[in-house]
Structure formats: structure tokens, C-alpha cells
Give the backbone structure.
Amino acid sequence: MASISIVLATFNEEKNLSDCLESVKDLANEIIVIDGLSTDKTVEIAKKYKAVVKVTSNPPIFHINKQKAIDMATMDWILQLDADERVTPELKKEIFSILNSQLSHPEDDRPLAETYDGYWIPRKNYFLGRFLMKGGVYPDYTLRLYKRGKGRLPQKNVHEQAIIEGNVGYLKNPLLHFADREFSRYLLRYGRYTDLIASEIGNKKAGYNPIVAFKYLFVLPAWWFLLTYGRHKGFMDSWQGFVFSFFSALRFPVSYIKYLAKS
């Protein structure tokens, strides 16, 4: 049987962590949690599931802590999760089947194209009462399953994916993501993301430039809204699809204004 390390980085996730770990308790050979100084019961819950827990700082680029968890893993494969994600029984069965089929067929007996060191997983995102299926949101492929030693996070921005040494395949069954059950939580995460984007703009040392300002304040938000709500049919996800496209588009001017305010 292939052995699997479940790795997470957490910060004040007592409302989510139990359901996440419950969904993988019979999939994991070990659970690694890097906690960023949570002030709630996150660490207590993690230890209830016999996780190996390390408490450290909580950097703005939370992929730094995710990489620390990846580095601590000892099993054959790594499945990196967020506390607000759930592995369905169907996805669990597919992971078992895929990884164990690789064990039963040694790599040197198969063409290179049939061997994989990592897998993209489709993801369903829950937003204010429904899973978004349009607007370019699904399938929201994320690279979370890979052989130990074959995958690393760049640790440079919020939306980065792991970098895999080797071939990468695709799984069929989705991971469930419950990040935004309430609008208040969405706004909290939105504030953090726009802060990071503002910092990324600042790293370019652009200063105030009328052309750049026009791009961030008008061109990018208009383009993004038309792309997600129109071309990718976000309107088919009811009012949630409109809200998601609208606020996603607003991240460009919001981030740029935050950058100007700090510069």
C-alpha cells in the first residue's frame, strides 16, 4: 500500500479543522500540521487526530508554513490540504486506486508517459450557499498530490501552485472547498489577498504612473468581470456568480489603492 502524509498549515481554524481531518483519517498514514500561533482550539483539535504539530510564526505568505509541513513529511506521497477543504469518499477511493496501481506496476516496466510524480485535483468552491460551477471557477485544478521529494512551493504569492519534478497527471473526483460560507469570512480573506497583491505591486517599484493607474483602476477590473461573468457564464451561478465576479474584478483597483496608500 502507498503511504500518504496529509500536510496542513493552520491559523485559527477550529471551525474547519475537525471536518477536514475527519475526511482523511482513514487515508492518512501521518498528519503534519504547522500552526501559526492560533489563539483558538486549532492545535488541540489537530492533536486529537494524532497529528504531528509544530507551532511557529504566521507569515503573510502562508505557503511558507505549508512548505514547512511538506518538509516534515515522511511518507511516500504528500497530500497538501487547507483546513476548509474536504476529501470526498469518491476522491479518497480514486487516490487509493491511483497510487496503489503505481506500486503494482514498476516504473521501469511502463512508458514514461504512464508514470506520474504528481496529480492535479479538480476543486469545487463553495460560495455563500452554493458551489460555483461557472465563471471559470470549476474545475479549479490545484496541484496538491505528489511524491515526497518531488514537489515544492515557490512561497512567493497567494495563488501559486506546487512545482513538480517529473510528469503530472489529473484526477477526476473533486476536492470540496468551503472557504466562503459567510460573506464576513470572504471579506476577511479578501482583505488579506489584496494586501498581498498590493505588496507584490510595491515590489515592482512602479511608483505612481497614470498608465499603470488606468490599467489597475479600469482596464483590468472591466476585463476580468466580462471574462468571468460573460464569457465563462458566471451569470449561471445566480446572484452568487455576480457577487463573485464583481468582487474578483474589484481586487485590482482595491490592491492598487492600498499600494498607493502605503507608498
